């Protein structure tokens, strides 16, 4: 299947930008990812991302680096940072933009080194896919951390996307699945990705998962729209 995300990044990098990435989700929502946004500067980033980059320290792994905007900012600040992505075109774009250290891999297949900071921005924890995979995902992150390391991740509580009743409660389908689990497809210039699972975590669900997988979970800041930045550290 086409790597539509990588294709869009490569086109933009090569001056061939004519359209954005369309996304279709199981929430019956059609949306767009503006490609220029993936090349944003620090000043154009939301406060949550800026805060995460300010907290990053030591040896950093930027997981799901995309066009490398976060990793490049840290590299320019003098940090030892590696951009990891499972898209060949995304990694090619990172290199072209000046990233010195890159890894082409799915995060779950990568175990080469240990880091002081793992970055999972733009809802990077979504890579876990489903709630049932979250423990395995967190345990893998733990295996990549130095003992005093940190995971900086942002996510959103998508409860606001469901119908609200008069007393302020939400109508969430009771089909046994966690409401933050979404299936996406992407489309770019007529090419479609295969469907993939993605998860948005509310802070309490994240805290519970951290608790049972050896992590402390600290809420760093909340954003303007049900989103937040969390810092995970290993329990001593």
The count of DSSP E runs of length 2 or more, i.e. the number of strands, is 14
User: What value does the Rg take, in angstroms?
Assistant: 18 Å
Shape: globular
Beta-strand percent range: 25-35%
Can you walk through the features of this model?
The strands form three sheets. Strands 5-4-3-6-7-14-13 form a seven-stranded mixed β-sheet, sandwiched between helices. Strands 1, 2, 10, 11 and 12 form a five-stranded antiparallel β-sheet that branches. The chain is α/β, with parallel strands linked by helices. The chain has a single domain, classed as 3-Layer(aba) Sandwich (Rossmann fold). The longest helix has 10 residues, at 4-13. It starts with a helix and ends with a strand. The chain has helices spanning 4-13, 47-55, 69-76, 88-96, 134-143, 203-211, and strands spanning 21-25, 30-33, 59-63, 80-85, 102-104, 115-120, 145-156, 163-164, 170-171, 181-188, 191-192, 196-199, 215-222, 227-234. A hairpin with a 5-residue loop joins strand 8 and strand 9. The chain is globular, with a radius of gyration of 18 Å. Keywords: Methyltransferase, Transferase. This is Class I SAM-dependent methyltransferase. GO terms for molecular function: methyltransferase activity.
């Amino acid at each position: 299947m086409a790597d539509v995300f990588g294709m869009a990044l490569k086109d933009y990098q090569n001056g061939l930008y004519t359209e954005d990435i369309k996304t279709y989700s199981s929430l019956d929502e059609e949306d767009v990812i503006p490609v220029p946004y993936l090349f944003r500067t620090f000043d154009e980033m939301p406060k949550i991302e800026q805060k995460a980059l300010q907290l990053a320290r030591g040896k950093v792994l930027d997981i799901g680096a995309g066009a490398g905007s976060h990793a490049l900012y840290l590299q320019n600040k003098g940090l030892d940072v590696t951009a990891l992505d499972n898209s060949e075109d995304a990694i090619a774009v990172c290199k072209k933009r000046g990233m010195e250290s890159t890894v082409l891999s799915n995060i779950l297949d990568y175990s080469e080194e240990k880091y002081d900071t793992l970055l999972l921005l733009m809802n990077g924890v979504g890579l876990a896919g489903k709630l049932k995979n979250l423990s395995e995902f967190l345990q893998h992150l733990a295996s990549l951390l130095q003992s005093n390391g940190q995971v900086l991740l942002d996510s959103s509580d998508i409860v606001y996307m469901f119908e609200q009743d008069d007393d302020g409660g939400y109508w969430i389908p009771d089909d046994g699945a966690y409401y933050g689990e979404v299936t996406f497809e992407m489309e770019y210039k007529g090419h479609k990705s295969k469907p993939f699972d993605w998860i948005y975590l509310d802070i309490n669900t994240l805290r519970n998962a951290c608790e049972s997988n050896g992590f402390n979970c600290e809420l760093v800041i909340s954003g303007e729209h049900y989103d937040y930045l969390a810092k995970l550290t290993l329990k001593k």
